[in-house]
Amino acid sequence: MRSIPIAKPIISEEEIRAVEEVLRSGMLAQGEAVRRFENDFSEYIGVDNAIAVSNGTTALALALKALGIKQGDEVITTPFTFIATANSILFQGAKPVFADIDEKTFNINPDDVLKKITSKTRAILGVHLFGHPFDVEAIQEICECYNLFLIEDCAQAHGAEYNGKKVGSFGIGCFSFYPTKNMTTGEGGMITTNSNEIAEVCRLLRNHGESRKYLHTILGYNHRMTDIQAAIGIIQLRRLDEFNEKRIKNAEYLNKHLKMKGLITPYKKNETKHVYHQYVVKIEEDFPVSRDAFMEYLRDRGVGCAIHYPLPIYKQPLYQQLGYRDDCPIASELANKVLSLPVHPALTEEDLRYIVEVVNNLEA
User: Fold this and answer.
1) Apex CA 202: angle with CA 162 and CA 23, to 5°?
2) Are 33 and 39 in contact (CB under 8 A)?
3) Are 294 and 339 in contact (CB under 8 A)?
4) Domain contains 3
5) Which of 196, 217, 236 is the last residue of a domain?
């Protein structure tokens, strides 16, 4: 039986050779390959600085710490994302405040953000969810009006654009290179910023606060990227636009050919370049079967699927213990409707035709 995974990293012989070269060099930790990757990435995003770190969660945590976010502060973010986004705020002793989401894009809703601002609010942490940029212009205006920092969680949006500009270039960008992302280094992350001051603090924080060899000026951590990861990243970055174009074409094919009643295909705003980290459909009430039954049907026929995300963050046990309650009704509603189908660049034309055939042939 055919088996089509929900995600699949693409690693070529070129990445393998690059890793082998690093291994033979003897320089395995943060070295020349990391510097090259940082330079290439900052040029690609269109910013002055890129700081490589150990993973995407670390990127978020260090960015917040570099901005001085601390105990007693509030950071507004979305409840409809991976838990690391909110946890990075907790790591600072600060409080995540959840604003509801837009029912079409699944991204943070600027109107609800305005309702959640208090005297303790210091920043807005938006997520470019599933590869679709959030409403950057509206969020930027709010940040300027209320003197707030803007942090972009770009973990699912490498190469995505808003009004022709790469995400990660509007505020402080935080990227993940986990294997399921649009590009990967296995693990790893990146912080992007035009602020030389913030960049310098992030560099200190990732490496024990070391300003030069054995001189430690602040309390830092060990959140370095290895040259092995960076070597993979250099090659993956060169292929990122190719990967993204394939994702976009795959999504366009699915948009055109999926015809089931009650299945709503992804929405895209005109001013954005959506890079489809995930292809997320909505299962409405008039769909022939329940979401769980549909998932079982797909998996029985070898079509990978997943729910991103089954619970808004405030419904997670950790956040329930912290006293959070449900005040984002759209996020709660959509968590019960969304379903991800394969869209990754390893899909063949035959795979796409098969996915469409399986979905469209569903019977109640």
Assistant:
1) 95
2) no
3) yes
4) no
5) 236
Residues of the domain holding 345: 240-360
Q: Which amino acid is at 165?
A: K
Phi, psi of 199 (to 5 degrees): -60, -40
Task: Identify the sign of the CA torsion 294, 299, 301, 304.
Answer: positive
Peptide bond into 214 cis (omega under 30): no
Q: Is there a single domain that holds both residue 226 and residue 300?
A: no
The answer to whether the CB of 60 falls within 8 A of the CB of 88 is yes
What's the 3-state SS for 40-93? Answer: HHHHHHCCCEEEEECCHHHHHHHHHHHCCCCCCCEEEECCCCCCHHHHHHHCCC
Q: 303 and 229: one domain? A: no
Give pLDDT tens digits along the chain (364 positions). Answer: 789 999 999 999 999 999 999 999 988 888 999 999 999 999 999 999 999 999 999 999 999 999 999 999 999 999 999 999 999 999 999 999 999 999 999 999 999 999 999 999 999 999 999 999 999 999 999 999 999 999 999 999 999 999 999 999 999 999 999 999 999 999 999 999 999 999 999 999 999 999 999 999 999 999 999 999 999 999 999 999 999 999 999 999 999 999 999 999 999 999 999 999 999 999 999 999 999 999 999 999 999 999 999 999 999 999 999 999 999 999 999 999 999 999 999 999 999 999 999 999 998 6
Amino acid at 120: K
| Confidence (pTM) | 0.97
Assess if residue 202 is contained within a domain. yes
Q: What is the CATH number of the domain that holds 270?
A: 3.90.1150.10
Instruction: Show the tokens assigned to 149.
Output: 């920092």
Residue 1 lies in a domain: no
Is there a single domain that holds both residue 344 and residue 222? no
- Mark which of 236, 257, 281 sits at the end of a domain: 236
Structural domains of the chain, count = 2
Please report, for the domain that includes residue 36, its CATH number.
3.40.640.10
Measured between alpha carbons, how far is residue 256 from residues 104, 212, 249, 275, 349 in Å? 18, 56, 11, 17, 14
Identify whether 7 is part of a domain.
no
Considering the domain architecture, whether residues 106 and 184 belong to the same structural domain is answered as yes
Q: How many residues does the chain have?
A: 364
